[in-house]
TrEMBL record:
<feature type="binding site">
    <location>
        <position position="289"/>
    </location>
    <ligand>
        <name>Zn(2+)</name>
    </ligand>
</feature>
<dbReference type="InterPro" id="IPR017850">
    <property type="entry name" value="Alkaline_phosphatase_core_sf"/>
</dbReference>
<feature type="binding site">
    <location>
        <position position="328"/>
    </location>
    <ligand>
        <name>Zn(2+)</name>
    </ligand>
</feature>
<dbReference type="InterPro" id="IPR001952">
    <property type="entry name" value="Alkaline_phosphatase"/>
</dbReference>
<keyword id="KW-0460">Magnesium</keyword>
<feature type="binding site">
    <location>
        <position position="32"/>
    </location>
    <ligand>
        <name>Zn(2+)</name>
    </ligand>
</feature>
<comment type="similarity">
    <text>Belongs to the alkaline phosphatase family.</text>
</comment>
<feature type="active site" description="Phosphoserine intermediate">
    <location>
        <position position="85"/>
    </location>
</feature>
<feature type="binding site">
    <location>
        <position position="327"/>
    </location>
    <ligand>
        <name>Zn(2+)</name>
    </ligand>
</feature>
<dbReference type="InterPro" id="IPR018299">
    <property type="entry name" value="Alkaline_phosphatase_AS"/>
</dbReference>
<feature type="binding site">
    <location>
        <position position="285"/>
    </location>
    <ligand>
        <name>Zn(2+)</name>
    </ligand>
</feature>
<feature type="binding site">
    <location>
        <position position="138"/>
    </location>
    <ligand>
        <name>Mg(2+)</name>
    </ligand>
</feature>
<dbReference type="GO" id="GO:0004035">
    <property type="term" value="F:alkaline phosphatase activity"/>
</dbReference>
<dbReference type="GO" id="GO:0046872">
    <property type="term" value="F:metal ion binding"/>
</dbReference>
<feature type="signal peptide">
    <location>
        <begin position="1"/>
        <end position="19"/>
    </location>
</feature>
<feature type="binding site">
    <location>
        <position position="419"/>
    </location>
    <ligand>
        <name>Zn(2+)</name>
    </ligand>
</feature>
<protein>
    <recommendedName>
        <fullName>Alkaline phosphatase</fullName>
        <ecNumber>3.1.3.1</ecNumber>
    </recommendedName>
</protein>
Length: 486
């Protein structure tokens, strides 16, 4: 009898210990295509620059995210050891593995509910923020279901609820991808039909912004900008931060994140139900594919700024928790040999931006002069040797030659132009005592599909019932899942 009571007490305690932390709001941040070496590179560069030291007597700084490291995440997909963003996003959003290229649908072509959809159905506010097209694979996985990530026009329609069986599931959509919302024939459209999704959204009462100046107006009228909000600030992808901060024609990820979090907070803070928002630092992946050291470091600093701002927001709003992990690493970055990133600090643009500038140089320009005056100083190669200048003048891929040259100088080796299989870092933040509780829960190696299950527990949601609704709809008619494109 006594033993039985003790056993029951122990099991109750064990249950209490295994329950997730309680929170009203969850913010999930995805630094897309980003791994442990990315963090080292950005931290070292910051430390060396701030302290004025070098690799033989380094004083190394600290990033805000260094204090938020909490575990590791395995990223393999249903059909590959190396995932893409569609399968990676689907795992983090829905808790199901799928094939590379598939969005919110399992390999047997059945739609599965996401944590964002479950949040919406339970009455929470929902948001997606990204520096790529908002219709791209990662935000798509939280808000749409299609067998091919390239069906971005269809993803746009699903995000606004035009063809989604549950209607619109997102209250805030901020990112690039304007071309997917414009009808064919309109300037800058990439649709192949006459559907005007801006007209559709405005008719249903969405607050819409199509460029930086409309975003600013929106911000000035903050109290008035009502949910739902749709903002697209580039035709497709937005700029990488290193270019954006020079050109200044798009809001930054930090600005978009602040708008999303503040708008969702305003809409929910008087209610019992909070919000779920996914924020994607998408262009880290692009700089990883390109092997662009300064772009990757500056992008990482900006991701770090976003995480720092969110942690400070959470200190003021302790009913909110932050969890973050990449969907996969990109570039297979290693830091070796005479590794010292200091010279990369002088760069002011991506190699891609400069290659476009190079290809668009005036026909009568002196190539060597143009290279020396207009390209090299903006990519930290002012002191290029004669042999290097010759190589750059002769290359037929300026972006690739620039990135290889600078990577070699700083000791950064990119082992692939694609993604890698390595585990990615899990970060978390919560205020006060909740922080230790959350860290204790998360301190381990996770399979990516377990992450949304944890958030489900935190917010008291039910993704499986969303899956049932979606699969019922698909059994009647699954044309809304689109087709594989070749
Ligand atoms: C690095 O710093 C040390 C100490 O200030 C100095 O002696 C050394 O010359 C520096 N090395 C380089 C490569 O600049
Ligand atoms: C922003 O978009 C609005 C509406 O399409 C347009 O009237 C305005 O000229 C645009 N502003 C800029 C700076 O492109």
């Amino acid at each position: 009898m006594r033993a039985q009571i003790v056993a029951i007490a122990v099991s109750v305690l064990a249950q209490a210990a295994s329950a997730a932390v309680e929170a009203k709001n969850v913010i999930y941040v995805i630094p897309d295509g980003w791994g442990p070496a990315s963090q080292t590179l950005a931290r070292d560069l910051q430390g060396l620059i701030e302290s004025g030291t070098n690799r033989t007597n380094p004083i190394i700084g600290k990033l805000a995210v260094d204090d938020m490291v909490n575990g590791l995440v395995r990223t393999y997909s249903a059909n590959r050891l190396i995932t893409d963003s569609a399968a990676g996003g689907t795992a983090l959003a829905t808790g199901h593995k799928t094939n590379n290229g598939w969005v919110g649908v399992t390999p047997d072509r059945r739609p599965v509910g996401s944590i964002l959809e479950a949040a919406k159905l339970a009455g929470l506010g929902t948001g997606l923020v990204s520096t790529t097209a908002i219709t791209h694979a990662t935000p798509g996985a939280y808000s749409a279901h299609t067998v091919d990530r390239n069906n971005q026009n269809l993803i746009a329609e699903q995000q606004l609820g035009r063809v989604h069986p549950l209607g619109s599931v997102v209250d805030v959509l901020l990112g690039g991808g304007r071309c997917n919302f414009l009808p064919q024939g309109a300037e800058g459209s990439c649709r192949e039909d006459d559907i005007d999704l801006y007209a559709y959204a405005e008719e249903l009462g969405w607050s819409v912004a199509r460029n930086r100046s409309e975003f600013d107006e929106f911000e000035r009228g903050l109290g008035a900008a009502r949910l739902p909000i749709l903002g697209n600030f580039a035709s497709g992808d937005m700029r990488l931060e290193i270019d954006r901060r020079e050109v200044q024609d798009e809001p930054s990820l930090l600005e978009m994140s602040q708008t999303a979090v503040q708008a969702l907070h305003r809409a929910t803070h008087c209610k019992d139900k909070g919000y779920f928002v996914m924020i994607e630092s998408a262009k880290l992946d692009t700089s990883g594919h390109a092997g662009d050291v300064p772009a990757h470091a500056v992008g990482t600093w900006h991701f770090n700024e976003v995480m720092k701002w969110l942690s400070e927001w959470i200190d003021e709003h302790p009913d909110t928790i932050l969890i973050s992990s990449s969907d996969h690493e990109t570039g297979g970055l290693t830091l070796v040999g005479n590794y010292d990133p200091t010279p990369a600090f002088e760069a002011r643009h991506t190699a891609n931006f400069l290659a476009n500038k190079w290809n668009g140089r005036p026909e009568d320009a002196d190539s060597r002069q143009f290279l020396v005056d207009e390209i090299l100083p903006y990519y930290a190669l002012t002191d290029a040797m004669e042999g290097e200048i010759e190589e750059l003048l002769e290359t037929d891929d300026m972006e690739d030659t620039l990135t290889m040259m600078l990577s070699q100088r700083v000791g950064a080796e990119w082992s692939t132009g694609g993604h890698s299989a390595i585990d990615v870092t899990l970060f978390s933040y919560a205020a006060g005592d909740k922080r230790r509780e959350l860290q204790a829960d998360l301190a381990r190696n996770w399979n990516n599909i377990e992450i949304p299950r944890y958030i489900e527990e935190v917010l008291g949601l039910d993704m499986d019932s969303v899956t049932e609704l979606l699969q019922e709809a698909a059994e009647e008619d699954d044309s809304w899942l689109g087709d594989r494109l070749d």
